[in-house]
């Protein structure tokens, strides 16, 4: 399956990026595993829940011609050096999603955009560079109401919002939203549109 862009993550950041891309005339696929804890309700979702983002935005994306893969998740990528060629999803394992560029918007820990064990934190789809401090005892503050250090952890990007691997930016994988480290630069959607629209 071939697209101009594949957005991995259908939460607020991913769906907002996808909407801007669709409205610019790009052929977009959104891989949306589920909902964040902030909007998830018991299944099936109530009418009120379905009228709120990101449910409503995913429905809007579908209505505008985007391919929305609900209940699916990206599990790996096929690379040519630092260029991402396609993404494999859990449900479409034998049909990779090819695109000119990709957007990583999988969120942090609650949405499994970042995973951890007792020693490290990692990004599970591609193995991107992740900022975190050594020593699990440094990840949280005992004061529940204090700013929590782990909220600053996340995927690292370059100044154009391209995801880093071994300190080097991917050619066509951009990051946005909660998955990013606090000091990482998110993609500039308007620059992406001007670069890829009309190709």
Number of strands: 12
Average predicted confidence as pLDDT = 89
Share of residues in helices: 10-25%
Give the second-level CATH assignment, the architecture.
3-Layer(bba) Sandwich
What does it look like?
With 199 residues, the chain is α/β, with parallel strands linked by helices. The protein has a single domain, classed as FAD/NAD(P)-binding domain. It has four helices and twelve strands; from the N terminus they run βαβααββββββββββα. The strands form three sheets. Strands 1, 2, 3, 4, 5, 6, 11 and 12 form an eight-stranded mixed β-sheet that branches. A two-stranded antiparallel sheet has the order 7-8. α1 packs parallel to α3. The radius of gyration is 17 Å and the shape is globular. The chain starts with a strand and ends with a helix.
Structure characteristics:
FAD/NAD(P)-binding domain, eight-stranded mixed beta sheet, 199 residues, 4 helices, single chain, 12 strands, alpha/beta
How would you summarize the topology of this molecule?
Elements: E1 2-8, H1 12-23, E2 28-32, H2 47-50, H3 55-63, E3 67-70, E4 74-80, E5 83-89, E6 97-104, E7 115-116, E8 121-122, E9 130-131, E10 154-155, E11 162-165, E12 168-175, H4 189-196
Parallel strand pairs: 1-2, 1-6, 2-3, 6-12
Antiparallel strand pairs: 4-5, 5-6, 7-8, 9-10, 11-12
Helix pairs in contact: 1-3
């Amino acid at each position: 399956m071939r697209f101009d862009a594949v957005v991995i993550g259908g939460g607020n950041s991913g769906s907002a990026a996808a909407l801007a891309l669709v409205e610019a005339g790009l052929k977009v696929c959104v891989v949306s595993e589920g909902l964040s804890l902030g909007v998830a309700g018991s299944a099936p979702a109530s009418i009120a829940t379905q009228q709120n983002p990101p449910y409503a935005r995913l429905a809007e994306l579908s209505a505008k011609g985007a391919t929305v893969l609900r209940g699916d998740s990206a599990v790996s990528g096929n690379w040519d050096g630092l260029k991402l060629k396609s993404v494999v999803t859990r449900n479409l394992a034998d049909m990779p999603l090819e695109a000119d560029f990709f957007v990583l918007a999988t969120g942090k820990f609650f949405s499994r955009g970042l995973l951890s064990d007792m020693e490290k934190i990692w990004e599970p789809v591609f193995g991107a560079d992740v900022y975190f401090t050594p020593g699990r005892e440094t990840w949280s503050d005992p004061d529940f109401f204090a700013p929590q250090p782990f909220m600053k952890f996340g995927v690292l990007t370059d100044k154009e919002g391209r995801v880093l691997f071994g300190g080097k930016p991917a050619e066509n994988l951009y990051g946005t939203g909660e998955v990013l480290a606090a000091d990482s630069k998110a993609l500039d959607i308007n620059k992406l549109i001007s670069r890829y629209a009309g190709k």
